[in-house]
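Dear Dr. K.,

Following up on our conversation at the group meeting, I've run the structure prediction for AMP-dependent synthetase/ligase domain-containing protein from Streptomyces phaeoluteigriseus. I'm pasting the input sequence below exactly as I used it, so you can double-check it against your construct before we proceed with anything downstream. Let me know if the numbering doesn't match what you have in your notebook.
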Amino acid sequence: TPDDGPPHRWFEQRAAAHPDRTALVCEDRALTYRELDEQAERLARALRARGAGPGSLVAVALRRSAELAVAVLAVHKAGAAYLPIDPAYPAERIGYVVEDAGPVLALTTTDVADGLPALHAVPRLLLDEPVPDAPGLTGDPAPADAAYTIYTSGSTGRPKGVVISFAAFANFLADLRERLELGEEDRFVAVTTFGFDIANLELFAPLISGARLVLAGHDTVRDPDALAALLTDSGATVMQATPTLWHALVTEHPQALAGLHALTGGEAISPALAARLAAATRKLTNLYGPTETTIWSTATELDGTGTPPIGRPLGATAPTSSAPTCTPYRPAPPASCTSAASAWPAATTAAPASPPNASSPTPSPLGPAPACTAPATWCGRGPTARSTTSAGSTTRSRCAASASNSVRSRPC
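The predicted structure tokens came back this morning:
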């Protein structure tokens, strides 16, 4: 929980307990917990020496590699927040995000930086060059300090930066770690673009649980055949993906999903796909939530029968059925299902200039502490915690250019 310190401290505890256990595998490279911790610690000291610390923002612009995990841990060890940048995103979007967010430093490599003009005006620390050593680190970020800033898709206007605190991130990870029952024998395959906020679950959840993070390479995540082979060869036990990717895998490689805990979200899942996935996997969990409430807000296990519900709230969040103005419906006709972050509402990088929506938190109808975001997705009648999503009415706020993976797209 947030009372136990920031999540990178939980990782350090795992590294101290099992230093020689494999922490990370990415293509042909593997790092133990000791190696990952030492590399992140050294980089964190270099970041502090360059002025990065609590209250500052560091852009992380890296391809899918072991260095990506090293970098995000290092930024948090330095007490700073990271700004995820996927080099594959359009240059115009990257330029806007960098200009709007104003990072004090960029962690990148020479080839990535050369291809991104937006980074030319930002001081850079190149990870393909020797990282200079620096004095040791002291202190932790405060719970209210920013852990990361992530930009929405901009589907309803220009992308907005959502600032998530260390406390909110810790609350989310503590709940998901327990809910998913992650342990040292798990192999968590990460496939999501770093620019999509659900990637933060994939990077941190296994490492704070003593499990193994299997970071799928750039080409693998775009090829269902290669991804299926990775699932089999790595002994994967957990993977998170959108219904689009799950549809491709369960259609072409259902045998690769046996023994897998499948996490689905980012798009509404159809009853037909839920039934097929529930039959092909060890366990199927549906996740829902807007970016502003820290990645996911609700979760439920699906058994493949009926219309898939979005589930019950994660720790310190509460959904309610309301009108677009955040006025509660009692009893509720079909309405917007809003999520309230009851302890640590997200901030945005700019003041809202429009009516309340998912990017402009407003006081929650649940009480004085939470912040309410709407619209998220249309709800049916009945208890909000069991509300269902509709493929034709989902309007959730999400980061990245698209929630979908770049695999061959088929109807779900």
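Two things stood out to me. The radius of gyration is 20 Å. The chain is about 25% helix and 20% strand.

Best regards,
J.T.
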